[in-house]
Design goal:
Layout (H helix, E strand, L loop, with lengths): L35 E3 L5 E3 L10 E2 L4 E2 L7 H5 L5 H16 L7
Antiparallel strand pairs: 1-2, 3-4
């Protein structure tokens, strides 16, 4: 018996797990300073809130508040692509095991 294909990831059912990943900013990104942070190694990244979410996420809709101007890294993250599915699979395993989300 063959494995069933995974259901397609769509915005309306997405838990925005990728919005907890570290987003390295590029020189071409024009992100306001209050949304950025520096790592211990001096890299410029999207800042995160106390719960680990990107500060640009709107917690009411779980959508990016700067979507049209989002960083290049976010633009390259393909919804339902291989990396997206891998991140979601890791998240689901952690939730099932009761492990706090640590996908940064």
């Amino acid at each position: 018996m063959s494995a069933q294909p995974a259901p397609k990831v769509v915005c309306s059912t997405c838990e925005a797990v990728c919005c907890r990943l570290t987003v390295l900013l590029e020189e071409s990104d024009r992100i306001p300073g209050h949304l950025t942070a520096r790592t211990a190694h001096g890299l410029l990244v999207m800042a995160r809130d106390d719960e680990g979410w990107c500060v640009a996420i709107d917690h009411n809709s779980m959508r990016c508040s700067i979507y049209d101007d989002r960083p290049s890294t976010c633009r390259r993250f393909v919804m339902s692509g291989p990396y997206c599915r891998d991140v979601r699979k890791t998240y689901e395993k952690q939730v099932q095991a009761g492990i706090p989300l640590t996908l940064y």
